[in-house]
Structure formats: structure tokens, C-alpha cells
Automatic annotation (TrEMBL):
Molecular function GO labels: hydrolase activity
Lineage, highest ranks first: Bacteria, Pseudomonadati, Pseudomonadota, Gammaproteobacteria, Cellvibrionales
Organism for this UniProt entry: Kineobactrum sediminis
Record-given protein name: Alpha/beta hydrolase
InterPro entries (alphabetical): AB_hydrolase_fold
Keywords: Hydrolase
């Protein structure tokens, strides 16, 4: 859990590592008659972890089932211990897995370190989450390592003695390792983008990634995530105008400017944007931080406390936060931090991303700002790769419609079904649909 240097988690360092695992069935799940579902074991950096495997209960193609490796998003520590890998049949992941299987794909859902309990035994690695799953925003890099180890072990699926795990009439499955695609959502988008940079241009990684899709990805660098997510989740100043009311911009009704405005749209479950409304009750506590300045100061303090305690070469690194002459919050970082943060994660490594990449986003999701996705796609395309942004107006973080009409207008359409159809097209041909 302790690092000699943050550079150990840089893209260049991760590209030089070796990866491997062996996937083994642990438990057959009675989920749907049209597919076979198993809980699997695999190993990542000495941690005994879990994953979920689904494939169609139909004729096995001559070349084998194409594979989708699914990188899920953030869940709380409490949820992680008993996470069901989407087996409730109601989550976004359930719907996505089922859609891919119905289209003829096998799907491996990655269980990161600390996620899931099978036969009464929790997945190992929760200590990593306890250390890094906070304001450091470093945990997705460890989850990317887990995903890379799992990807490297996909060839072990062919060595499983399937007869004991299948119905008497079931045919032994075969998997097409030439068509392995990657799908990630939210924090899983951060994971997925890191993976793509590691396995991309001129990489020595053995398993080819055919195509990739990221939904509502937390794709920006660590500093940008800190400065966006905490403020939007804890202070109204992040999304209110200069006069303290919501106008959809930094500018108030009489021209007052909010210099620390972040983004117009908080999560739809806030319920109302009118702080004077009788519906504004519990929200007052949730968004009780007085300013963006205070929100960023608090979260950066978390980050630096973690770095100083668990990264050997940093000593007592500290940041400087202040308001400039325009009253805008500014944060200055020491070189020991500022130089390495851009090296963590795939956002600044568009030149390495060779797998065709779809980026599916809402125009109202602060966890995946349109400008981040458009910037990434532009740089991937300029570097000779292929990337496309699909925008779903009025959608939530899960590419669904909100129950609040102020968030999802009457003419808004749910994005998830169309995004899934587009992914199926991409994963079958490595080309974009409409």
C-alpha cells in the first residue's frame, strides 16, 4: 500500500510492468435461462479477487464468443464488501451486461480489490481502498492494475474444465481473444482510460483490446477531479450565479459574476435548485460548505495527508490555496506533486490510445464534463486514433432520464439504450455507428 514514489503509478511505469492472472469458476449463478453466469476468482498483485462471467446459453460461434470486460464505477466501502456484481437485475450494469449477452457477447465484470464476498470470504485488498479511496483519487489506478491483470489472464478461460460447471446439454464455451473490448462507467471510465493508455501504441502488453466505450467517465486528471467533484457535491457556490441564485451560468440576473463557478448542473437528486423553496430541506446540510475555496481546501488536505503518509519520497509536501485579485480560488502545488499528477491516468496520454473509443456523456453531468470528453477525443484523433463523443441531453450520470422535469426536459430521450446499441456496433466492427 505504501509507495516509494507516485511515479510507480504513472502510465510509463505501468506500461513497463508485467501482468498475469488465472480465472477460475467458484460458483454458478441461476440468473437467466438465456445465459450462463458464474462468479470467478482471479489474482491481482497477490490479492485474491473476484469477477463475474456471463455468456450466452446458445450455440458457440466457431471463432468463440467475443468478450467485453466491464469496469464498474464507484461504490461505498460498505457496498463494496457485499457487492453483488449487478446480479440484482436492476442496476445500470445489469442492463448493460444482459444487453451484451443477448447480442452474443461474453462479459467479464471486474471485481476490484476489496469488492465482493463469495462463500463467506471477502475479496482481499480492502486496505488499499481504505488508504487510497479518498481525496487522493489514486484508487482507480490500483483498480486499473486489477483490470490489466484480469485482461492478461483471459486466455486461462480456455483451460477451465467446463464440463463440471455446465448443464449436461451445455456445449463447452470458446472465447474470441481477438475481439476483447473494454467498457467502463464513471470511476470505471478512469480505470478504462488508464488501461487503454497502458495497452495501446507500442505496448508490450499481450492481450489486444479491440475497441472501448466509456460512459460518463471520470476521465480528467487528479487535480481536475478534486477541484470539480468535491465542490459540486458540497457547496452551492459551485453551481449558483454571482447573485446566489441558479441561472445556469456564473452570471446573475443583474450581471453579478461568481468567479468560482464550476458547472451549472448538480446531480438531479438534489431535487430543486431554489434554495428559498419549501423543498429545500435536507439539501441545506448536504451543501453546507460555505464556498468552493473551503471545499477545495478540505479535499486537497485529504490528498496531501495521504500522500505524505504513504508516499516515501514526498516528506512534508504542502499546497498553497488563495484567492487572486479577481476573487477566484487558486491552488499552487510543489513541483514534487505538480510534475507527477499529470502522469497518473490516461487523460494526458491520448497518443497511446489506439483502440477505437466511444465517449457517451450527458450535457448535465459534472462527473464527466463535456469539455473533458471533447478535448480527449480531439487529441486522440489528432494522434491518429479514433474517438467519438456522443451527447445525450438532459440525461443523468447513468444515461437515464431524471424524474425532475427541470433536469430532463420533455423532449429528452434516455441515452442508455442508444449508447448500448452503439457499443454493440463498435465492439463488432471497430467502427462507429450513427
Amino acid at each position: 500500500m505504501c509507495l516509494d514514489s507516485l511515479d510507480e503509478l504513472s502510465i510509463e511505469s505501468m506500461r513497463q510492468r508485467s501482468y498475469d492472472s488465472v480465472l477460475k469458476p467458484l460458483k454458478k449463478i441461476d440468473y437467466r435461462r438465456t445465459q450462463h453466469t458464474y462468479m470467478m476468482a482471479y489474482n491481482s498483485d497477490g490479492q485474491a479477487l473476484y469477477s463475474r462471467l456471463d455468456f450466452p446459453a446458445s450455440t458457440v460461434p466457431a471463432s468463440g464468443f467475443p468478450l467485453v470486460v466491464l469496469a464498474p464505477g464507484w461504490i461505498s466501502r460498505k457496498q463494496a464488501v457485499d457487492w453483488d456484481f449487478g446480479l440484482d437485475g436492476k442496476s445500470t450494469y445489469s442492463l448493460v451486461v444482459d444487453s451484451f449477452v443477448e447480442a452474443g457477447y461474453a462479459v467479464v465484470t471486474v471485481g476490484y480489490r476489496g469488492r465482493g464476498t463469495i462463500h463467506g470470504t471477502p475479496a482481499q485488498g480492502m486496505a488499499y481502498r481504505d488508504v487510497w479511496g479518498n481525496g487522493s483519487y489514486v484508487s482507480p489506478l490500483f483498480y486499473a492494475i486489477d483490470t490489466l491483470n484480469l485482461l492478461a489472464g483471459l486466455d486461462s478461460l480456455a483451460k477451465i474444465h467446463w464440463k463440471q460447471w455446465l448443464p449436461t446439454t451445455g456445449a463447452k464455451p470458446k472465447f474470441d481473444l481477438n475481439k476483447v473490448s473494454l467498457w467502463g462507467h464513471s470511476q470505471g471510465g478512469d480505470v478504462g482510460l488508464t488501461v487503454l493508455a497502458v495497452v495501446g501504441k507500442n505496448a508490450t502488453f499481450g492481450q489486444y483490446v479491440f475497441a472501448a466505450s466509456i460512459w460518463s467517465g471520470n476521465i480528467a486528471d487528479r487535480f481536475t477531479q478534486v477541484e470539480t467533484f468535491e465542490a459540486m457535491a458540497t457547496t452551492t457556490e459551485a453551481f449558483m450565479s454571482g447573485d446566489g441564485t441558479w441561472t445556469g451560468s456564473a452570471t446573475g440576473r443583474n450581471g453579478e459574476l461568481n468567479p468560482d463557478f464550476v458547472f451549472p448542473w448538480p446531480a438531479d437528486w438534489i431535487g430543486t435548485l431554489d434554495t428559498e423553496s419549501e423543498d429545500w430541506t435536507w439539501q441545506a446540510e448536504q451543501w453546507s460548505t460555505t464556498s468552493v475555496f473551503e471545499a477545495r481546501k478540505r479535499k486537497y488536505r485529504e490528498m496531501y495527508n495521504t500522500f505524505n503518509q504513504y508516499v516515501a519520497n514526498l516528506g512534508d509536501a504542502d499546497f498553497h490555496i488563495f484567492r487572486n485579485d479577481r476573487d477566484k480560488t487558486v491552488v499552487e502545488h510543489p513541483a514534487s506533486i505538480a510534475q507527477v499528477i499529470p502522469k497518473l491516468g490516461g487523460f494526458h496520454y491520448a497518443n497511446y490510445i489506439t483502440a477505437p473509443l466511444s465517449l457517451h456523456i450527458s450535457d448535465r453531468d459534472y462527473y464527466s464534463l463535456p469539455v473533458w470528453n471533447q478535448d480527449l477525443a480531439k487529441r486522440v484523433n489528432q494522434a491518429g486514433g479514433k474517438a467519438r463523443v456522443y451527447l445525450y441531453p438532459g440525461n443523468t450520470h447513468s444515461l437515464k432520464l431524471s424524474t425532475y422535469d427541470w433536469f430532463s426536459p420533455e423532449n429528452a430521450e434516455p441515452g442508455a439504450p442508444l449508447a448500448t446499441a452503439r457499443d454493440i456496433q463498435l465492439f463488432s466492427s471497430a467502427s462507429f455507428g450513427d
